[in-house]
Amino acid sequence: MKHIATAVALLLAGAGAALAEPLEGMWQTSPDDNGHVGWVEVTTCGATLCGKLVKAFDSDGRPIESDNIGRKIISRTEPAGDGRYTGRVYSPDRDKTYRSKLELSGDRLSVSGCVMGGLICRDGGTWVRVE
Questions:
Q1: Is the pLDDT of residue 17 over 80?
Q2: Is residue 2 part of a domain?
Q3: Per-residue pLDDT averaged across 114-118, rounded?
Q4: What is the CATH number of the domain that holds 80?
């Protein structure tokens, strides 16, 4: 009986790994208005995806202090099919949260978003997966 329980547990663990969300992981943002980049760790948050800023770097790639470390940069994000996602992305350099569109292609993530009902939109550039 112990062997059956162990086998079932291993199968379930393997199935969970096989169903991992492709967007999950560590992403380096495009440079912001100040030339800074950040590392955003994307995980599941209940039924949606979210991502917190875990590191920040200056334009020369040196680590910097940031009041935004630990802040949710990606929130309420859900798959929309074919590598596309919709949700919210916070932009620390502009202190705005945008209704976002994300498009995943391999280890690259195109990020864009709009505020004020689509009147003001911003191209957030392409983020790259951090190995």
A1: no
A2: no
A3: 84
A4: 2.40.128.520
